[in-house]
Write a structure and sequence with these properties.
single chain, D-Maltodextrin-Binding Protein, domain 2, 12% strand, transmembrane helix, membrane, Bact_solute-bd_prot1, Family 1 extracellular solute-binding protein, transmembrane
Length: 579
């Protein structure tokens, strides 16, 4: 055999080997694809402990029938493996030793680390299926967006894509996540009226302090309970609060949105311009008012004690780093010492068997335990006559922004789309919200009526954490939480109508690249210093000036405001209606 012939033979052999490898590889790829195609659709549904197990429900069977597919449903409760180890859509199930025995979900429902707006913003948008491209294949969702334009607008990211579809608990919940409450029994006992200004509120609080309105002779009343600015519990994971003292900014005409990232960091919008409230004159007036109340024992200093301790500790550490110490004024190590009131203690005060609290912020009257019937909501008092107060418009009560998302690389895209659409079916929506055994549904004259059975609390349902759609015009009876909310929000409805959309940040606007703080912010520490020194001839002017200087120089507030303006302008370009 010549050398050329040998080379030709070798080339032919290599070609045959390569061809066989390609065929084998192709077969292998098709086998893998066939296996994936034949595997069930996997849906992870997150909810609280004690609620209905999805896989055992009839409505889950209806979802499977809608997509004509097999579904593996996984309940994700707070202590489950997935709840503790999944940190985003991109979590590698197959390589995580805690998750490797679980099939990676194709669909995530109400699963905050994956479907939450903050999680989406921190992750990679390419990991999520852009559901907007497939709305024509989802008739329930399309009708939802057409009939509730607010849901369509809210569902969109800044670029108009839809990576998570929110649940809608119905127009009854189209209000605030927090309200201001007063003890009506105490008012009646002392012959007082509901206050409408700060001056009147102070008079009422003084009467609550001095008049023994709970009748036990103990002088144990807390005229105005304020949620602590820091949770003094080692176990706490709280990062912000939507029912804190900042709500008094609404008395000045400044709208808060304490359930939105920008609002938590004390940015608001006025006439389409982002404003920094943290160093505003309105903020200073709120601080002065609270310090005045604290100086007369009308607001508990204990709610601010830990923030003040942290401020002193941080200042002492900074001085020590510069070689400055003050042996005559030692500062306790707050990492080991906990002072003031914890969140749990504060909530116990609200729900005490003997009513202790005159005024407080809360979601509804259930916060006051067995004395709930003594409390009623009232509009936040105006700073003074001539000011029209506004109210917090975070809007997270109606819409569950921790909605439903689909993995972009799912092999079961068609099935996933049909399953997601089925969640927004009317009957399936009711079953998710209330549980199958707690409702009677009837239809008459074009209206749907839902009668909630039992004590009206539907313990197996997911409630407002569901992902479905309660249609406009639905008549609901016997729903106790809904009735409590409507009663709490009623005094604010006229305020909402007067406010309109002016001064309201887009719901779900989230920008992880913009810095900020939540609970225990520099603003909390500034106020805590005012409150805890309110009776000691404290120099409020010097403290305010130092705080403003620090906010401007150390925290980049001007840069943050510009960044939020860019985000706001982008979000406001989203489509407001589905065309």
């Amino acid at each position: 055999m010549t050398r050329a012939s040998a080379k030709r033979g070798m080339r032919i052999l290599l070609c045959v080997i390569c061809a066989l490898a390609v065929v084998a590889g192709g077969i292998g790829w098709y086998l893998i694809r066939a296996k994936q195609n034949s595997s069930p659709l996997v849906i992870a549904y997150a909810h609280e402990d004690g609620r209905q197990s999805v896989a055992t429900t009839q409505w889950a069977q209806r979802v499977a029938a809608a997509c004509d597919c097999d579904i593996i449903w996984r309940d994700v409760t707070p202590n489950s493996i997935e709840a503790q180890h999944v940190y985003g859509m991109y979590t590698p199930y197959n390589s995580d030793p805690e998750l490797k025995d679980l099939a990676q979900p194709d669909v995530f429902v109400s699963f905050a680390p994956v479907t939450g707006r903050d999680a989406i913003a921190r992750g990679q948008s390419d990991d999520y299926l852009n559901l907007r491209k497939y709305l024509k294949r989802m008739p329930n969702v399309t009708r939802y967006f057409q009939e509730v334009p607010q849901a369509f607008e809210t569902a969109q990211q800044a670029d108009g894509s839809i990576l998570s579809i929110p649940g809608d608990a119905g127009e009854d919940y189209d209000g605030s996540t927090v309200h201001m409450f007063i003890n009506r029994t105490w008012l009646n006992r002392l012959g007082l009226s509901v206050p409408t200004t700060w001056a009147q509120l102070k008079d009422v609080l003084t009467a609550f302090r001095d008049g023994d309105p709970n009748g036990n002779g103990g002088h144990d009343e807390i005229p105005f309970a304020i949620r602590p600015t820091e949770d003094n519990s080692r176990e706490s994971t709280a990062t912000f609060s939507n029912d804190g003292w900042q709500l008094l900014l609404n008395s000045t005409g400044m709208t808060t949105q304490l359930n939105e990232q920008a609002g938590q960091n004390l940015f608001v919008v006025e006439h389409a311009a982002i404003q920094d409230v943290a160093t505003s004159d309105a903020m200073r007036r709120v601080g002065n008012y609270l310090a005045d109340l604290a100086s007369e024992g009308l607001v508990p200093k204990e709610s601010f004690a830990r923030s003040y301790a942290l401020k002193r500790y941080n200042e002492a550490m900074a001085n020590a780093a510069q070689g400055k110490t003050d042996a005559t004024n030692p500062v306790p190590d707050v990492s080991a010492t906990f002072v003031g009131t914890t969140f749990a203690e504060y909530e116990s005060q609200l729900a005490s068997a003997t009513p202790l609290v005159g005024v407080a912020f809360a979601f509804d009257t259930s916060a006051f335990g067995d004395n709930a019937d003594q409390y009623e909501s009232f509009p936040v008092p105006a700073e003074h006559d001539g000011i029209q107060p506004v109210w917090d418009r975070s809007g997270r009560t109606r819409f569950n922004l921790t909605g439903v998302s689909v993995r972009a690389d799912s092999w079961h895209r068609d099935d996933a789309l049909q399953a997601v659409d089925a969640l927004f079916d009317e009957t399936i929506s009711f079953a998710q919200f209330y549980g199958e055994d707690h409702i009677e549904i009837s239809h008459s004259n074009g209206h749907t009526t839902v009668n909630v059975q039992g004590d009206g609390t539907y313990p197996s349902g997911y409630g407002r954490s569901f992902v479905g759609w309660i249609r406009p015009g639905t008549i609901i009876t016997g729903d106790k939480p809904r009735e409590r909310y409507l009663a709490a929000d009623k005094p604010y409805r006229e305020i909402y109508r007067r406010m309109g959309s002016n001064g309201v940040l887009p719901m779900g606007m989230y920008a992880p690249q913009i810095g900020g703080t939540g609970i225990g912010s520099p603003t909390d520490e500034w106020l805590a210093e005012q409150v805890c020194n309110a009776s000691a001839g404290f120099d409020r002017d010097a403290s305010w000036n130092a705080y403003v200087q620090s906010m401007n120089e150390d925290y980049g507030r001007a840069d943050n405001a510009r960044d939020w303006q860019k985000e706001y302008d982008q979000y406001m370009k989203r489509d407001q209606t589905l065309r």
